[in-house]
Amino acid sequence: MTDYDVLRVFCAANGGYGNELGVVRDGSVLPDREDRQALAAKLGFSETVFVDDPERGAVDIYTPTLRLPFAGHPCVGTAWLLDVPELVTPAGVVGARLDGEFSWIEALPEWVPPRTLRQYADAAEVDALPVPPPGEWIYAWAWEDESAGRVRARAFPGRDDGIDEDEATGAAALLLTDRLGRALNITQGRGSQILTAPQPYGWVEIGGRVFLEGPEKQPRSAGY
After folding, report:
1. For 80-112, what is each residue's pLDDT tens digit?
2. pTM over 0.90
3. Which domains does the chain have, with CATH numbers?
4. Which of 30, 53, 75, 178 has its CA 20 to 30 A from that of 116?
């Protein structure tokens, strides 16, 4: 059996919404990348994290179809779960901290794969968008209240892996924060909340609420 935890990351104030995340705390049970990729595909979360060293915070992140050097909501959720001051990702060392109900990480925009940040006239236009065909990774956004830094957003990964829309995406929020150069309060998907803030030397903080749904077990089968 492969044990894993299920978290919801970037939840709303009432504990609802958030993007689901699978975390395999003992990555040694699946040391091979092919097996990890197969499990990530089988679980079907937008990302699944394998923890290779819980004390150092060394992690390995997968979508259902590919391995990522860095991703926002997996790092926010895993840092909260492990309660560590940093995570070690292939992209670099991610700072982490807890502040009341929010879990925060600090990362660099250059760690994020290319995303198309597409601005719309208002939140209603973003709400009405259909899911685009696979191809381009699109972060659709509009101001809800520009003076207050409130943003409405939706994320379309453009992958042919069953994830048509991501409920909450920290990496895309990081890129938007870097572009706009200001702190943001983002409502994404059906109602998830992402907070961001620029930091010195190009770093960006991303924060949100994390809830533990519970531990699960994935039966071993061919390839696991």
Report:
1. 999 999 999 999 999 999 999 999 999 999 999
2. yes
3. 2-89+210-218 (3.10.310.10), 111-208 (3.10.310.10)
4. 75
Residue 215: predicted pLDDT = 79
The answer to whether 47 is a known catalytic residue is yes
CB 25 within 8 A of CB 221: no
The token pair that represents 86 in the structure block: 């940093």
- Alpha-carbon distance 132 to 146, whole Å? 26
What span, in angstroms and rounded, lies between the C-alpha atoms of 84 and 62? 20
Which residue is catalytic, options 20, 47, 106, 205? 47
Nearest-angstrom CA–CA distance, 106 and 121: 30
**Amino acid in the structure at residue 98:** L
Separation between Cα atoms, residue 74 and residue 210, nearest integer Å:
11
Containing 74, the helix (H) or strand (E) segment is helix 72-82
Mean pLDDT of 154-177: 92
Tens of pLDDT along 107-149? Answer: 999 999 889 999 999 999 999 999 998 889 999 999 999 999 9
DSSP result, 195-223: EEEE-GGG-EEEEEEEEEEEEEEE---TT
